[in-house]
Amino acid sequence: MAGMDVFVDRLDPDMCVVTAAAGGERAGCLVGFSSQCSLDPVRYAVWLSEVNRTYRVARSADVLAVHLLARDQHETAELFGGRTGDEVDKFQRARWRTGHGGALVLEDAEAWFVGRVVERVPGGDHVGFVLDPVEWGGRGKSGGPLLRISDAADIAPGHPVD
Fold first, then answer.
1. Tell me, what's the pLDDT at 53?
2. Which of 31, 88, 94, 130 is most buried, judging by how many CB atoms fall within 10 Å of its CB?
């Protein structure tokens, strides 16, 4: 894998927070792997680690919410990336509302969408959730620069990555 670092270390994608609700449980985590994956129809994929509580809740969820954060929202990134929902109720510390299909929408996100889960794709230690956007909102392009992986490098993961 060391050779692949030459490529991967050059990347600095936007981070997002993914939230899920199912079976009376709610969860959310900071995600570094996500992307639009289709133009027609529009589809977006988020990749959740199999060791993460959000993944365990998302397996049963019909919809997920995906949120972009501004660089100055490091505290929110720390909450969703540096804490595990196995020990902390992150939603007691965040402003949120219920969206389409019972999705958990973070009210302070720069931009967000709720997507219906149309497919789950295994991919090593992460599973891709392919989403069909059904509701969206946010500040649009008027907001500040988005939080990137390099901005969150100081956040120790709530769950181990290995």
1. 94
2. 31
